[in-house]
């Protein structure tokens, strides 16, 4: 039984199998991402009413909050994949982790910059060194650290081990970011959606927000597959099946 | 949008927050586009690189046969 499960995992996590499967999967994420994103933008920019406190500036929420959620989500995916790669030596997991890092870094950067562009008119400053903003900045540096270790270490297995360990240790930052608005006094507003009781955001604003979050998730799924396919080609470039395949590309 | 009639210039003005809102949305568009373009360019680069390596190895193998 156990051996059968292991054999199954081995088959589905083989880079060759992944390469064939992922080609078919990508459009199933990319097309819905575009459609959901377009509808979310339409609702967020044209339909959702003006906020009575923040005026039109609050519309940054529809990209800032989904980007910030993605920065955390992708980090968790990256760390879990790295852990799977470290513990069970599944190479595909290391490839997913390596493919996730630059995407996660770009969403973290986006969350920081859009937050800053929202902070200026609302708080009167682009930046404060408070807990939420600082811990999110540390997240960006964790992504950079992972990417630096990946590219600095020549031997791929050593690179995966070192960067994977960094990713796993860095997970402590995730709950710190999430709870920072409760644990410390901060300029950043508290949670409005991820709360146990009713979200303190109007439904006409909540729906486009959730649609944009879904669109970002689908977008990530599509582009992480594209990047992971590159990792397969690059890491298995001396294997025969890659060489035969590349001659046809 | 405030008011009953839709108006493009009030839409773009964003109630005076145009710079902040549109910079945010513009940057998002750029970052999402880069996330598509860069991996596709990397893919082309890898394919070219592997093809070149394969050709080099074939040449070397042929040369060996000639000298033998």
Account of the protein in words:
The complex is a heterodimer of chains A (249) and B (68). In chain A, α3 (61-88) runs antiparallel to α4 (91-123). Chain A has helices at 2-12, 15-47, 61-88, 91-123, 131-152, 156-169, 173-183, 203-235, 240-248. Chain A has one domain. Chain A is 78% helix and 0% strand. By secondary structure, chain A is mainly α. Chain B is an all-alpha fold. Chain B has a domain at 22-67. Helix content of chain B is 82%, strand content 0%. Chain B has two helices and no strands. Chain B has helices at residues 8-13, 18-67. The longest helix of chain B has 50 residues, at 18-67. The mean pLDDT of chain B is 89.
Give a topology summary.
The complex is a heterodimer of chains A (249) and B (68).
Chain A: H1 2-12, H2 15-47, H3 61-88, H4 91-123, H5 131-152, H6 156-169, H7 173-183, H8 203-235, H9 240-248
Chain B: H1 8-13, H2 18-67
**Largest sheet data of chain A:** none
What separation lies between the terminal Cα atoms of chain B? 81 Å
Please state the CA-atom Rg of chain A, rounded to the nearest Å.
20 Å
Query: Can you give the helix content of chain A as a percent range?
Result: over 70%
Q: Level of helix content of chain B?
A: over 70%
Average pLDDT for all residues of chain A: 93
Order of helices and strands of chain A: HHHHHHHHH
Low-confidence stretches of chain A: none
Q: Overall 3D geometry of chain B?
A: rod-shaped
